[in-house]
Amino acid sequence: MAEVAPIAVDTLRDFVASALDSRGVPEADAIKVASLMVEADIYGYGTHGVFRLRQYLARLAGGGCNPTPTIRIAQETVATAVIDGDNGLGHLAMSAARDLAIEKARTAGIGWVGVRRGNHAGPLALYVRPQAEAGLLGMAAAVGSANHVPPYGGSDLLLGTNPIAFSAPADGPDPFVFDMATTVAAMGKIKTLLQQGEPMPEGWMVGRDGNPLTDPARKSEGFLLPIGGPKGFGLSVAIGLLAGVLNGAAFGSDVVDFTSDTASSTNTGQFVVALDPTAFGMGDDFARSAARVFAEMRASPPLPGHDPVRLPGDGKTAFAQDRRQNGIILKPALRSDLNTLAADCGLPAPFPQEAAG
């Protein structure tokens, strides 16, 4: 098999921006969203990067997502705010929330900014890593964009993957960045396996009969499983209260499946937090102390058969720099899908040799 050539970051970003522009998104907004989508792939969050372009274009075409939103602050105090995303592409509201949270943290020590009337915004890591790079701590969470999980012991789908992310500065090349779903696997991973024709591992999903599901094409027949059983369920509910109910956003049966319903507003709820260590008398001492503790953890002798200890975020800086310089390699199924989307949008194929072959 011939070696797959990487696609340059700028080329991929320009294609995604042009595709969004073809659906009525203003140029500046299209570039901002495309840059964040490609940034997700640069850092290795492929299930939440350009892979999601088909979903975003479908919702723009179906009327479920507003291509020309007015992002505004609906409620504000010195340390908190709620941003109204006007049902636009979620990256716009979440990046505004992140920037405002950082600004407030510099003034008040903490900034907590919720989002209502948002949409799917890619991986939460995009909205916490900048805090750590600025010497702050970050946190973000979201109500999932579809319900795939029942309450623990129940059978009605009333919860999503409800992800949460944390970040912190640490001396060295890599900040601490931890981004996870409250389910054993994120639905995005299952969708990528479906696109690639690969099975799911046991333990990700079960059918209504309680037996494991491993065929991603049958994902609608079962449930995603929460991490840690009732503990994951409780964490998911807590995130729903903070990201959904607190912001006047959807939670429970109000959540709209943004994949199957391309016409309805989702009113997705999220929040972003920034925390300044200086407000606790730490300043740069936090990053030094964190690095010392992380070094102790990495030095812990691994158990037999295990790799050396790694912290969340380790190696991401060098990984991202390599992709910025040398391009991103995308899976064949995704490359094919992007070519199809290009044709649908009246654009040149980003992978022209494959389109011709």
Total tally of structural domains: 2
Number of helical runs? 11
Give the strand order, joined by hyphens, for the main sheet.
Answer: 1-2-3-10-4-5-6
- Main sheet? 7 strands, mixed
Q: How far apart, in Å, are the first and last alpha carbons?
A: 15 Å
Which of globular, elongated, flat, extended, rod-shaped describes the shape? Answer: globular
Give a count of the beta strands, DSSP E runs of length 2 or more: 10
Q: Into which percentage range does the β-strand content fall?
A: 5-15%
Name given to the CATH homologous superfamily of the largest domain: Malate/L-lactate/L-sulpholactate dehydrogenase, NADPH binding domain
Average pLDDT score: 95
Supply the CATH class of the largest domain.
Alpha Beta
Low-confidence runs (pLDDT<50, min 5 residues)? Answer: none
What is the topology?
Layout: H1 9-21, H2 27-42, H3 53-62, E1 72-76, E2 80-84, H4 90-108, E3 110-118, H5 129-133, E4 137-142, E5 164-168, E6 176-180, H6 187-196, E7 205-207, E8 212-213, E9 222-224, H7 230-244, E10 268-275, H8 285-298, H9 316-326, H10 332-344, H11 352-356
Parallel strand pairs: 2-3
Antiparallel strand pairs: 1-2, 3-10, 4-5, 4-10, 5-6, 7-8, 7-9
Describe the structure.
This protein is an alpha+beta fold. It folds into 2 domains: 93 residues, Malate/L-lactate/L-sulpholactate dehydrogenase, four-helix barrel (Hypothetical Oxidoreductase Yiak, Chain: A, domain 1, Orthogonal Bundle), CATH 1.10.1530.10; 202 residues, Malate/L-lactate/L-sulpholactate dehydrogenase, NADPH binding domain (Ribosomal Protein S8, Chain: A, domain 1, 2-Layer Sandwich). Helices cover 37% and strands 14% of the residues. The chain is built from 11 helices and 10 strands. Helix 1 crosses helix 2. It is globular. The two termini are 15 Å apart.
